[in-house]
């Protein structure tokens, strides 16, 4: 296994462990165990647990951007339907996982952003990148008259992303998708252009 692939494997396995259990509930030893690597191998790639998490957030963010692009950067269906399909996909993933894991970036934002400024900065950059992608699709929907023009495309994208982040938090607290479904129905009603 090559250097790059080994590092990506460590990030993939370790970030999944943190996504499901939280930053403070996962130590380096748990990451070493799930990756079946010695401590020295970990420190060949990461200077600390915080460095590992920062790189994991960036890796996860890139994977998320690829997912977003696969739904939103197409010509068909309509922009609103592309947004609906993307968020339905997220809801379905979380439902299949038992509504208890959520999004790594959202989870770490809640757990760390108020107490760890360097990681908060990395998290915010990922939120911004995804929001910009959503905003492009919103703008396309505005240009076609599908989505309200009362607010800028970026404001609407921020509203959508903030809303699903909150819904993910409630999903985990209640261990069901009730708030995700409410968020979904209300969001698309609120952003629709009114005749």
Given the structure, what is the number of helices?
9
Mean pLDDT across all amino acids: 92
Q: What are the segments in which pLDDT stays under 50 over at least 5 consecutive residues?
A: none
Order of helices and strands: HHHHHHHHH
The top-level CATH class is: Mainly Alpha
Look up the CATH topology.
Tetracycline Repressor, domain 2
What does the largest sheet look like? none
Task: Please give the structural blueprint.
Blueprint: H1 3-21, H2 28-35, H3 39-45, H4 49-72, H5 79-96, H6 104-112, H7 117-143, H8 153-174, H9 178-191
Helix pairs in contact: 1-2, 1-4, 1-6, 4-5, 4-7, 5-7, 5-9, 6-7, 7-8, 8-9
Walk me through this protein's architecture.
The protein is an all-alpha fold and 195 residues long. The protein has a single domain (48-191), classed as Orthogonal Bundle (Tetracycline Repressor, domain 2), CATH 1.10.357. 76% of the residues lie in helices and 0% in strands. It contains nine helices and no strands. The chain has helices spanning 3-21, 28-35, 39-45, 49-72, 79-96, 104-112, 117-143, 153-174, 178-191. Helix 4 crosses helix 5 and helix 7 (117-143) packs across helix 8. The model has no long low-confidence stretch (mean pLDDT 92).
């Amino acid at each position: 296994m090559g250097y790059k692939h080994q590092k990506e494997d460590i990030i993939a396995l370790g970030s999944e462990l943190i996504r499901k259990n939280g930053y403070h509930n996962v130590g380096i030893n748990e990451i070493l165990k799930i990756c079946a690597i010695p401590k020295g191998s970990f420190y060949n790639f990461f200077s600390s647990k915080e460095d590992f998490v920062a790189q994991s957030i960036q890796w996860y963010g890139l994977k998320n951007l690829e997912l977003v692009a696969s739904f939103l950067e197409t010509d068909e269906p309509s922009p609103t339907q592309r947004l609906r399909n993307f968020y339905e996909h997220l809801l379905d993933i979380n439902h299949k996982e038992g509504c208890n894991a959520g999004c790594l970036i959202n989870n770490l934002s809640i757990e760390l952003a108020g107490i760890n400024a360097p990681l908060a900065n990395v998290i915010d950059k990922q939120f911004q990148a995804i929001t910009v992608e959503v905003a492009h699709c919103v703008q396309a929907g505005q240009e076609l008259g599908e989505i309200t023009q009362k607010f800028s495309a970026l404001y609407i994208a921020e509203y959508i992303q903030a809303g699903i982040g909150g819904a993910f938090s409630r999903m985990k607290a209640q261990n069901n998708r009730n708030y995700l479904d409410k968020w979904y129905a209300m969001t698309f009603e609120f952003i629709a252009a009114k005749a």
